[in-house]
Amino acid sequence: xxxxxxxxxxxxxxxxSYEIKSEEMIGFSERYDPQPFHLSDAVTPDNxxxxxxxxxxxTVGLMMRMLADNILSHTVSQGAPGMDRLRWTKPxxxxxxxxxxxxILEKRASRSRPTIxxxxxxxxxxxxxxxxxxxxxxxxxxxxRPEHEAxx
Amino acid sequence: MIYFxxxxxxxxxxxxxxxxxxxxxxEFARQFDPQPFHLDPVAAEQSVFGGLVASGFHTAAMMMSLSVSHGVxxxxxxxxxxxxxxxxxxxxxxxxxxxxxSTCLEKSPSRSRPDIGSVRFxxxxxxxxxxxxxxxxxxxxxxxxxxxxx
Lengths: 152, 150
What we know:
The structure holds 2 protein chains of 2 kinds. Chain A is an alpha+beta fold.
């Protein structure tokens, strides 16, 4: 188990791997983001190869999945108040293989809740060529080490 | 089609509503956010939320779905570079019904491209009690009806 105390500012975590499958990507678009360029291939001035582009919210979901599986599942995650800033920097397409890089930017203890601490994180989603396709910064709440447990 | 010129600063659009079921919350969580308070009604009762709640990114996806199906996001919207200040203000629970309120905040024509402009919107997701459950500043890149001269 990793507690708030075990994360340090400047620490970089690299993890996860997810290959984008066409059917799954389109399934998400049909349900949550049915814009034409997320549903079928079409050449436009902004998309010269014409291949279907994943919904940015699908990429957000995959980031969350890689974060949950690889990091949060080993912590006492207490959720998050929001996401301060997010940018989609490159279109994601079927066949791309995504992975994650998380940098711990800041940490502070909660004044009102002694059992939790805050981490400000920068998450980057990278493709198979190590190009950042999406990045975001935000605060997460993590459980602190109980007093009866010695530091590992 | 909605063009850049059609968007008035301060103008507001309100969508119809959509229900949120426990099945959908769990299905989204299974695929994207498998934390106990999004996934397991029994474990969720012991969590800080005191019961099953939707993933914040599920609420964001439902915002997008409402925005597309009710014409807040339209064919003139080319893409989004991202968003700022997303805040999850209240839990979204099974049985809630959500709608979206979108207000145009700022417009700026592109400096490098005569055919597009950038628009910032304050988007709020509200529940059946009128409580804002999520707010965010969305950014859209939108077509101009009349390309501005360079």
